[in-house]
Each structure stands twice: as C-alpha cells, then as structure tokens.
Design a protein that fits this description.
Layout lengths: L1 H6 L7 E3 L6 E4 L18 E4 L4 E5 L11 H7 L6 E9 L5 E6 L4 E2 L5 E2 L1 H8 L5 E7 L6 E7 L1 H10 L7 H5 L2 H14 L9 E6 L19 H7 L1 H9 L6
Length: 245
C-alpha cells in the first residue's frame, strides 16, 4: 500500500503502536523512511524480539495494567516490565522494525518447526494465477494451501493457450492449468526453508469475502473459520496421493 501511495506522490510515514502503548512505539522519520517498515523506536522506548520473534516493548508510555484485571495484565506484562504485543517482527540492519505477522497466527508443524504464514502468503499471492491464499500446516507434516485463483488471469491464460474455457469449475480441474500453477509456485518458493514450502494445494471456486463470513471487515482471512469450513478439503490434501510441488 505504501508503494502505491508513493507512486501517486503521496508521502507516507508508517508507524506502529497499540492502545496499551499510548499508542506509538515506532515511526519512520522524514528523510530516512523505508517502505515496509514502521521505523525505529521512539526516544525512551525499548523494543526487542522474544525467542519466537514476538515484539516486546518497554518504556514510560506502556500502560500500568488493565483496569481491575490483574490476570490479564500479568498475561501481557512480564516481571521485567516488558509488554508482549502479540505481533511478530524483525529488525532491519539499521534498526527499523518490520511487522511480519500476529503471534496467534504462527503455525507449528508436526516436527516442531515454527511457520509464519503471513510472509509466505504475501510471497505466494504475487503469482498472477492467485487472488487469495491461505497457508495450512499447523500440526501437519508439511504445508498445503487453499488457493482462490484470479479469474481474470485464468481466463486470459486459457485464451493465450487457445484452450476452450467452459465453466469455472471445469477450468479449475484443468491439468495443464494446475501444472502451470505448480511450476509458478515452485519458482516463487525457492528461497523458503523446506518446512515453509507449499507442497500441495486445493483450488477453490469462490473467494473469501465478508459476505460469506470468511473475511473480517478489514479484509483479513478468518483463518480458523476457513479451516473449519474446508476441513474435508484440507484433510484430502494430506490423505490423497496428489502431486507435490
């Protein structure tokens, strides 16, 4: 989004904070801003990453606690005064913070490997074949994905190949299309760790939308609801002898 506004000549300075942090923890400064980051921490604010990548914050702007709720307070502020944000991030070489995911979204494979779905999904959705993607892998041996294809691109791909485009359902079962998508995903995933790579996928014939209850009002996929609704499809990806990427 920042790149889009930049191309329009609109100067965006991204920042980061929560209600509990009053509210700003970090923000880009004019002249040293970097798109895709939320900048360095404010003066007197300490930021560090926990072992699992969670962003921890400490400083005079951190709340004292939740009103009359010591249990909830203890769950987010540890004994050393660090507030646990629930967000996952990384630091650039020059100390700018980059938000990569929510801690609650972390997938843990059956082999105990942590998988951050956000960056992987962001990488995969750059494929012209794909409109939406949901990474699956929590408690599983390997990663799979639910993919909503980009209908406009798929139709143009059929035209380019001089193939007959019948129904949308029949198009999604076209073996040549699926092979092209597998090849595209293989190239895009080359730099991912083995446990992060999507090995199998299912193509869905309807998108995730607010209307069908699979997107939040802020257009984020409702991961748990999608997994519940497509449970049989997901189980089939792990049970059936399908082609791996």
């Amino acid at each position: 989004m920042g790149h889009f506004f930049s191309m329009l000549g609109i100067h965006i300075l991204e920042g980061y904070g929560l209600t509990e942090t009053s509210p700003v923890l970090a923000v880009n400064r004019v002249g040293t801003e970097e798109l895709g980051t939320v900048g360095p921490p404010l003066p007197n604010v300490e930021l560090r990453l926990a072992d699992d990548g969670e962003i921890l914050a400490r400083g005079p702007n951190i709340m004292k606690g939740y009103w009359r709720d010591e249990t909830a307070t203890a769950a987010v502020i540890d004994t050393n005064g660090w507030f646990h944000t629930g967000d996952i991030g990384t630091f650039t070489a020059d100390g700018k913070l980059r938000i990569t995911d929510r801690k609650k979204n972390i997938l843990i494979s059956s082999g105990g490997k942590n998988i951050l779905p956000g960056p992987i999904e962001a990488l995969v959705v750059t494929s012209p074949f794909i409109e939406q993607v949901l990474l699956i892998g929590d408690g599983r041996e390997f990663c799979t994905a639910l993919i909503v294809p980009d209908r406009t691109y798929v139709e143009s791909w059929f035209a380019e190949k001089r193939k007959t485009f019948g129904s949308w359902e029949s198009a999604l079962n076209d073996e040549e299309l699926r092979a092209a998508l597998r090849d595209d995903l293989f190239r895009r995933q080359r730099d991912l760790a083995k446990h992060e790579r999507i090995r199998r996928f299912a193509l869905l014939n309807e998108p995730f939308t607010v209307e069908n209850g699979l997107l939040t009002p802020t257009l984020k996929i409702k991961r748990r609801e999608a997994e519940r609704r497509y449970a049989s499809v997901i189980d089939g990806l792990y049970r059936e002898a399908t082609t791996d990427i």
